[in-house]
Structure formats: C-alpha cells, structure tokens
Amino acid sequence: MRENQHITGGERVTRRTRPLTATRKWALSTALAAGMALVATGASAQSNPRFIPLGGAAKGALYVPDSGPAPHVAFLAIHRTSNYMTHISTRELPKRGFMVLGMNPRFDNNEAAVDWEDIALDVRAGVRFLRSQPGITRVILIGHSGGGPTTSYYQAVAENGPAYCQGSNKLVECNPTRLAGFVASDKADGIVFMDAHPGNTVNTLRSLNAAVKNEDEAFETIEHHLDPFSVSNGFNPTGDSVYSDLPEAVFHRAVGPHERPHRHSAEDPRPHAIRQTSANRR
Q: Where does CATH 3.40.50 sit in the chain?
C-alpha cells in the first residue's frame, strides 16, 4: 500500500493506492495493447453487419471492418438480457480494425426467464464462433453494466469448470451435466469491464433498507434508529451525509453480513461519509 498526498482547497489529502498485482498488470497491459491497436489501424467501420444464429435462441450481429488489414482480435459484447447487437462497440471498434460480435443471449428482454447456466452456454457459442473465423487469434469479452457479471461468470466457468459454481458455500449449485464440455480454447483472452456492476444479488442487497420492517407498509413500519434518511441519524438533505459508527454498524448487521461499509483502509477511524454531488442532488 502506497500513500500519495496532494493539497485540495488548502487541505492536505492522503490517498492510499495498491501496488499492481499480476492480475492488474495483465489487465492493464491488455488495455494498453488494445489502445495502441486502436491508434495504429486505418480501417473503416462495417456498413453491412451479418446476422449470426448461435443456437438455443441466442443470436448475434457480426461486424468486420470494410477496409484495412484483416482483423486478428475479435470482441464479444453481451448482456444478461439487453440487446447488444447494436452496442456502441459494434460501431466504434470496427472503425479501428477489430471484429465485433454484438450478441444477445436466449433471454433477451426477459429478466424473469434468466438462467445463468444457459447464459454461459450462449457466451461459449459466441466465443467458439469467433475463434472459428479466419485470422482471429484473440477473443476479448466486453462486460458493460449487467454484462459484467455475465462475462465474469462465463470466464470463471471456462477456466475452472462446473466446480466453480458447486460446493457447500453456494446457495444454489449449478448442474455439472449442463455445463459439461468446456475446453481450453473456450476461455477468453481478456475481459473489458465497462461500468460493470457486481451482479443482481449484490445490487439487491445494496438496495435493502434495514429500517423497513414490512415491505407492504414501508412508510408506516420504520425502525427510526436505522433510518438512513433521518436527520437525527446523520442524513443531510442539502449536502454530505455523515453517519456515526454505531448506527452504521447496526444498519449493516441488519442488512446482512456480506455488505460492509467501504473505507480507504481498515485503520481509517472516520465516520462513514456519503458525499453528495451535483448528480445526486437532483
């Protein structure tokens, strides 16, 4: 852990930064390599994408540069349910010499039908299709927003097999038979996480209000000592909200054991602060 100091508004601010681990170095080098390729190529975007049926109701649109050298790197953009066949990457990356498969899983526009095991099979179909294209030597996944957990889950299964989603520490174990058949070439060569979220379960956990005792009567059954929107607990409707350690600890204990306050370090003694910006004042 390294400390960097700078002066902001007459106040010295210390920020702690983590040294680059091997994984972070790999991610950084992948991003830098992709960035250099973007600058170096003189390709033009594809004007006529090709529809690609991928089986199991999964589908995609394949984009290849109209001109310039044949691409050697292919990107696969996919979300859990959204239509990524026209994702921004399908327009911008072919301009820079890359092949892009904008892909929809079998659950497009149907959140209630989502089955993660089948999503992994859909992503695998897309990866295998791209690897079968002439000249492609690298396949990189794009995990944008909800595509983040989609692609990270896929990569975890591709690297570790069904054992990744089995065991006593899993609330629901995956079916090893359905996820059988992964081979070494199914692993992506990298993942680009674009404003990715950590998953529906974590998002839901973070959305819980421990002060609500009855969801059917949310405003009538409030535990006031846990209410994060109570001025007496530290809420400031016009600026930064600062919560003391005691109510904060009680709140997170009520929400669940896996959601903890985020601090710069374990030694940071300051109360938990939520900074208000121009965006969240609206």
A: 22-202
Fold (topology level) of 22-202: Rossmann fold (3.40.50)
The model carries a pTM of: 0.69
What gap in Å lies between CA 89 and CA 77, rounded to an integer?
A: 7
Q: Give the pLDDT confidence of 16-46 residue by residue, as tens digits.
A: 444 544 444 444 445 444 444 444 445 666 6
The string of pLDDT tens digits covering residues 84-108 is 999 999 999 999 999 999 999 999 9
For 158, 217, 280, the CA distances from 117, given in Å and listed in that order, are: 12, 36, 36
